[in-house]
Amino acid sequence: MSAFHTKTIASVLEPVALQVSQLVVLYEAGQQGQAMPDLMAPIKVVLDCVSNLAKVAESTARQSNDAIFIRDFPSAMDAVNSSSALLNNAVIELRSDPFSSQGRRKLIEGAKGILTGTCDLLLMYDESEVRKIVKNCEAVKSYFPVCLEINTPDDLVFYIKNLTPGLTQVCGAVINRAEELLHKPYADILRRETDQLKKFSPMLIGASKSLISAKGNEELRNAAQQNLDTTLDKMVANMKEIIRVLLLKDPDYGAKIIADFHPLALAKDAVLADCNRIKDWLTNDKLSDPEGLKCVGELVQAGKELAAGVTGVPGEEIGEVVKTIDDIRSDLAALGDSASESDKAALKKTLLDNVQKLDKIVKNTDVLASTPSGAVSRRIEDAKKWATCGEALTDTAKENLADLLTTSRAVAKATGGKEGAMIESTCNKIDELIKDAGRLDLEIGNMKDKSDNRARILAWLDQLDNQVKMADSNNILPSDVVKAGAKQLSEWSKDSPAVTDANASHAYQKVLDVARTVLPGLSSTEREQVEKLVGECENAMKAYQAVAQGPVPSEAAVKRAQADLVTAVNKLGNLLERTDMTGDNAAENVTTGVERLCDLLDSHKVGENDNVEESIRDTVEKVTNIGRAVAHHNTGPEGNNINNLCDEIKKFSAQRNWILKNKDKVSPAQIQENTGNLKRSLKELEKAINEVERDRDDNTELVSAVGAAQEWAATGKGGDAEGTATVGKVISQSRYLARGLNTKDKREIFDLCQELEDLIDEYNRAPEARKRALRTQISEKMAQIKAAARKANLAATPSSAEVIGFPECAEIIDDWLDRDTITRNPQGEKAVEDIIDMAAALSNNIGGEVGEAIKIQKDKVSKLLKNLQNVLDNPKSTPEQKAKAKEELKDAISELKKLCNDHLAAKVVDTFVDITGPILELQAAALAPLESAEKAERFKEKAADFSLHAEKLCRVAEIAADVGCDEDPHRHDNIKLSIEALRDATPLVVYSAKTLSLNPTLEHANENFDLVKQQWVSEAVRLRSDVDKCVKPSDFMVESERKVKEEVDEAKRLIGPSPKDALVKVSMVQKITNRVIEVADNELENIGPCEYKTKLQAEKTNLENDIKATAQATNDLVQRKTASPDAYNQSLTNVHMTISRMKDEVVGFYLPLPPLPEAFPEPVPEETEENPPPRPPGPTDDESEEEDTFDVNAPPPDPVEAPIEHAAFKLRQETAKFVEEDNDMITAARKIAQKFQQMAKYTKGRREILELGQTDQEEPPRCSTSSLHSEKSEFSSMTDMIQTCREIIALTKTIQKHAGMISTNCPDKRLIYSLSNSMEPIGMLSQQLNIIASVKAAATGRYDEAAEVEADEMLTINAQNLMKSVRDTVRASEACSVKMLSNPNVKLQFKRRK
Question: Is the four-CA dihedral 22, 23, 25, 30 of positive or negative sign?
């Protein structure tokens, strides 16, 4: 059963799951000997619901045009119908025999099938609906570039009329989809991207108007074109992001659906669906003749699209059969009603044969393995030969060029989007140049024009080749894509007319996208190298942009910057070419190449097709190059063997080339022998490279640890303490490496580690005489672990979980360093390294003395981390040494965090003091009269200042996202989205301002700039709001007071000697004051009635009055209404003093509370006071005992081997911080953790019983399961698990109830927002738990281990997420309770334990 992710699916499945869980309870009661009751009534309810769902699904399938839904629906419907029949039969059998074991088996199998089948049907329908939305999105996205062809106002009106309805429909459908999704982050992204589309659409229209109005002015037209191109790119990017998120459901789902949406895959599905419908018409008369002929017409249309996109012989075969079918359709239509039945039957028989033939060809064609870039490239080489030799445009040359353009346009159509439009545009340009070539050939002389024409054709052919390769990046090596991009950038740097700035920008972005997609498949060293070169490319592009958009860009500086960019991209391409031939990529690429070669060799005779032979030669060359690269990195017998195989392949390939030239002299047997030898050598090479790559683990920590441990096991060198410590490192590293594996491989390695631990325990207790034999067993066990790791392809240590910010890192570090007994912890060490990296970024951004202080402290933390690692690795280290190293590291990290948080506030105050000033200055420069002599230079200067200002805002926001203190769990994502939106809007402002500067009186340009400016300002304000949440109000006030004091002192000093500079300082004081008032307003809005709020409100009013008085005093002094600066100085002093008082109030309010006294004095007893009755004894159930014995300092369970227990332990750690008295939320959270612990034990026990081959009907032998009875003693059946899930759901409702009460009464809106975000997933996850429990109950013990493993994985993920949400809710509730201690409406008391 797949994961469900929409409200509709969950609402339909929940009642079905409830009924299934009831049937499981009855089933287990029957297993214990009880008679089954009459189930006719409840089963009838289930069957009626399923029947209604089936009717709706069948109706949808009949009306649907979705080929995938039509293809998959019948099997899903059959599964539901068979499950319904099982349930019906079970009821009948149990009515006649209430003890029937066969009836009980049918009952549970039918219940399971109903639940999973219903889910599959719902998911199928949901996916079909998503495909409809995505299809509309693709249609709108493909229509966006049509704006590039608009030349007149009438064209624009026509474009708007066509675009508006489709865009409105798409936006509405996407918003409705967002409301339906259960996963809030995905829904938020859809809403945000849709909102961006709505904002960009009027900008696109405005940019088009400006371009139309720019006729006759080349400079104005270029500026307007840049503006339009940038706006178009942003809208296409927004639509792509919407499509990406629409397809997301789980990681595998996204990839699957994306493959289904490849244009050729859709065409293939359409052809197969039409073939099935036609066969039904011709064999079963399910359609009338007119309907059948209509279906044949649809088949012909889809077949032509498929044939145009598939290269080589399969494409030609499809095209021929489709043409035959089209001819038969025409003949059938021409017969009319008067034709004899025998004539119609003969034509239908011929049609059926051809449809079956087409169906077979298409099914055996892997359309996604087609490489259109290869077909285009071969034709381009032929065209280049003609253009280079200078021959006239002969008929043969015309045919070849026409074939090239036809193939390229087919690729453009299959690619779609912006890339397809670019290829189509290039084809049109080449077509124009070819017509010019024909005209020039008729003229006598004029050799210069002819030469120029051929040179331009060559340039555009290169451009076409690169564009097709870039578009075909899914089917060729990443290095080929990057090199194509580098070639395109190189032509751009040489001012080639075929490569515009937009083309170059697209190529650069494609290079980075491809480079980033290969990162997960690389080794750690290769990954670092690629990331470094990607960074160099980004820096080179930023340097170019800075030069090109600078005040006075010199041509020499621009050329140098372009050359640096091309060099960086070329270096990246060369590195990726090496990675294509090494590591995991080598085995994968060789396998792909060998499979392709074998297919070509099997399906084509020697010399049958020149293009196929060229493809064989190219692929052989690539495969042998990869093989030699692998051999170079693997010396010894393995490398020699691979080299020999490469030599053999080259020899057999050379023989095949000789056979091509001498086919008449060679017998068929010799040809067959050559083909067989070539295939055999290729398969051996593939096998050899795969074996080498599986053994590539010489540099891993695991192998080095195993080697050291085996040396100790063989010789006893180093002593037992050091040797067992090394074995312990092997166990730790093995478990760590196994984290990313599938369930089977992970279980195998974990079991081996457990056996190795048992051997070490036995070794430590054994006498000296037995230790030698035990060391031999330990060595053998470690060899098994190494082999298991190699088998699972663990050649490199996987990276630990991603950590996104200081708060998350700090939590992991505290969890590691707060333990009484500390050991190596990869996740904790990675968190420390992440904090060091974030501190380094902050120090570089801040600079100066502050940045240097952070850098020094960062280096100190790094040094102390290495010291702790060395101490922990040394078996001779004492507990005192470990404790000292741990405490030193903790103190250094705390100091680093304090430094970063303090100075982040300073950077935010300085950077965000005025976000709109630069854009207003840019607007003023653009609106200056055209007659102004310095207008162009001033505009360039202001444009550069604005771009720099926007980038500074984004960089500080990036640091705030990592270092900030905001409690919002979505903080990081929100800021990153705001940064991306601001960066997208910045170039639009520059281009629209440039258009405005060239024609300030143009109404369209003014309107467009106003729209873009409004968009940029709104994004900047949103970013500032998000960043402000990452800075404590107290820190902000402290830094603002410091800053305003500096500006006030300068303003007082400069008023005499330099009044103009003094006015600048006064303006800065006003801006800082406005920011202080803004933060004060936020603070007042977020707190309830209290003395602090009253004082802060009063000081804020005073500050508003003071800043007005300052403005008045400054005007009086500047206008010489007064000669004395006393009033001016006093007004500035008042502003500073008021901000200082506000700072004191805020800082005092946020000071930490003093610690409670260790002991309270005994109250003096009163004589009249009666002694209260004795407190009754507390409960003595198991839960209270477990609460009393829970050790918060104990090491947590392994998060991979015991994920549910680990999450439960973390939740228990959180609840153990508080006293449960008068706090039902803490009690409920603690019980949730305990019940999930019980469920995890039961699940583990049941899985172990299955692995031992036991079933519900068998009594397990005592000798083999004695160790399991204790683990499954708390649960004895699935009924217990279902009941426990219901109890957990009831407890979550208790938590939601109390959290809702707290959020209603908390006066701080920021804390309410954080609590709401933490509490929101609990309801959805509880609903999922109810359904998952029913799935697991129906799957367990039913002879379907795969179904149970899938149910276990779903249950594990749900339990982890639910307990994390409960833990976050407890934390957020406690934070809210601090602000509402005096509220009588809330009875919950969060009292921390000592």
Answer: positive
Which long-range CB contacts under 8 A does 496-503 form with residues at least 24 apart?
A: 496/459, 496/462, 496/463, 497/456, 497/459, 498/426, 498/429, 498/456, 498/459, 498/460, 498/462, 498/463, 499/463, 501/226, 502/226, 502/229, 502/233, 503/422, 503/463, 503/467
Token pair belonging to 76: 């899903």
How large is the average pLDDT for residues 458-484? 67
- Residue 249 per-residue DSSP state: S
Helices assigned H by DSSP within 912-1058: 917-927, 935-963, 971-998, 1003-1028, 1033-1054
Distances (CA, A) of 1293 to 95, 598, 1280, 1324, 1327: 39, 61, 20, 11, 11
Q: What is the dihedral sign for C-alpha 611, 612, 613, 617?
A: positive
Mean pLDDT of the chain: 76
Is residue 312 within 8 A of residue 367, CB to CB? The reply is: no
Model pTM score? 0.55
Cα(379)–Cα(507) distance, integer angstroms = 22
* Cα separation, 1039 vs 1180, whole angstroms: 56
Q: Is 637 left (phi over 0), alpha (psi -120 to 50) or beta?
A: alpha
Asked if 299 and 278 touch (Cβ cutoff 8 Å), the reply is: yes
| Distances 552 to 560, 906, 940, 941, 1016 between C-alpha atoms, Å | 15, 33, 7, 8, 25
DSSP per-residue string spanning 287-340:
S-HHHHHHHHHHHHHHHHHHHHHS-HHHHHHHHHHHHHHHHHHHHHHHH-TTS-
List Cβ neighbours of 1320 (8 Å cut-off, separation of 6 or more): 184
Distances in Å between the Cα of 438 and the Cα atoms of 426, 434, 452, 1327 are 19, 6, 14, 72
Rg (CA), the chain: 37
236 within 8 A of 144, measured Cβ to Cβ: yes
pLDDT at 957 over 50: yes
53-85: b (≥16 Cβ within 10 Å) or e:
bbeebeebbeebebbbbbebbeebbebbeebbe
Q: What is the pLDDT of residues 199-250, one digit of tens each?
A: 888 888 888 888 888 777 778 888 888 888 888 888 888 888 888 888 776 4
Which whole-number Å values give the CA distances from 157 to 152, 163, 230, 1012, 1221, in the listed order? 9, 10, 21, 21, 71
For 701, the token pair is 């920590």
- pLDDT confidence of residue 170: 92
Q: What percent of the chain has pLDDT over 90?
A: 4
Q: Cα separation of 1336 and 1355, whole Å?
A: 8
Of 621, 619, 611, 583, give the one whose Cα is nearest residue 476.
619
Q: State how far the Cα of 919 lies from the Cα of 945, in Å rounded to an integer.
A: 9
Judge whether 217 and 189 are in contact, CB under 8 Å: no
Q: Rounded to an integer, what distance in angstroms lies between the CA atom of residue 1257 and that of residue 864?
A: 59
d(CA 1292, CA 150): 59
Report the C-alpha gap between 1070 and 1063 in whole angstroms.
10
Residue 461, both tokens = 């052919």
- Render pLDDT for 518-536 as a digit per residue (tens, 0 to 9): 665 565 566 677 777 888 8
Res 477: pLDDT: 57
